[in-house]
Amino acid sequence: MKKPIIGIVMNYDEKGEYFSQYPWYALRKDYFRSIQNAGGAPVALPFHIDAIPDYVRMMDGLVIAGGEDYPPEFYGEAPMGERLNLLKGGRSEFDFKLLEAALEKNIPVLGICAGEQAINIYFGGTLVQDIETLIPGALNHMKPCPSHEPSHAIDIVEGTLLHRCTESTGYKVNSAHHQAVNRPGKGLVINARSPDGVIEGVEHPGYKFCLGVEWHPEFEIDAEDKRLMKAFIAATQSS
């Protein structure tokens, strides 16, 4: 049986100081490994907007990976605070055009960290631009421990797609984000929160599979994360 092709959005840097003296694309190995482990065939997607129709024809599923911050003007706000670190190389524009094209074809979409935020923005939602600044008393959501270790618990809303995928009402996740969903976009359902009330996941029931989480299930540190990745791949194979 042919493995489903899963397109994964990468990150970009102009400086080239870590890999090449020239601009480069890169993404952690965990994204590719977790897709492969779940039964998919991962393919990296450079930011070529004119290639989006070809990408959409090729892929059976889309992963919008973690990364830096989307421009606040994308959700109708002015930049706030000193921690704003915008995505580079045209990724912001590319992500939303690719997401639109994928959803028009009802291709399953999994948003991880910044990718979850992209889904929310796409549907007209807003973000908390900096949790530490704007939510007094919030947990430390920005890597209080290594990403391959859990950092805080989440509560999963029963009856949601996330609940069905993970077969869990809550577990500990490897949180690593300084922004979060503020107002959910039109049609989106909140599927998870952390103990401080910060939204940790959203989904859209109007599509075959359109789900975003703030943590990083690609590290596969829990059985629930492995089940989530497998459920995403399974959705790409269903009619």
How would you describe what is shown here?
With 239 residues, the protein is α/β, with parallel strands linked by helices. It has one domain: Class I glutamine amidotransferase (GATase) domain (Rossmann fold). Helices cover 27% and strands 21% of the residues. It has seven helices and 13 strands. A nine-stranded mixed β-sheet has the order 4-1-5-6-13-12-11-8-9, with helices on both faces. A two-stranded antiparallel sheet has the order 2-3. The chain has a two-stranded antiparallel ribbon with strand order 7-10. Helix 1 (29-38) packs across helix 7 and helix 2 packs across helix 3 (91-104). It is globular, with a radius of gyration of 17 Å.
Keywords, separated by commas or semicolons:
239 residues, 13 strands, two-stranded antiparallel ribbon, globular, 7 helices, Rossmann fold, 21% strand, alpha/beta, 9-stranded mixed beta sheet
How is this structure best summarized?
The protein has seven helices and 13 strands. By secondary structure, it is α/β, with parallel strands linked by helices.
User: What name goes with the CATH superfamily?
Assistant: Class I glutamine amidotransferase (GATase) domain
Number of domains: 1
User: Roughly what percent helix?
Assistant: 25-40%
**Main β sheet profile:** 9 strands, mixed
| Parts with pLDDT < 50 across at least 5 consecutive residues | none
**Computed structural class:** alpha/beta
Mean pLDDT across residues: 94
Instruction: Kindly state the number of beta strands.
Output: 13
| Beta-strand residue fraction | 15-25%
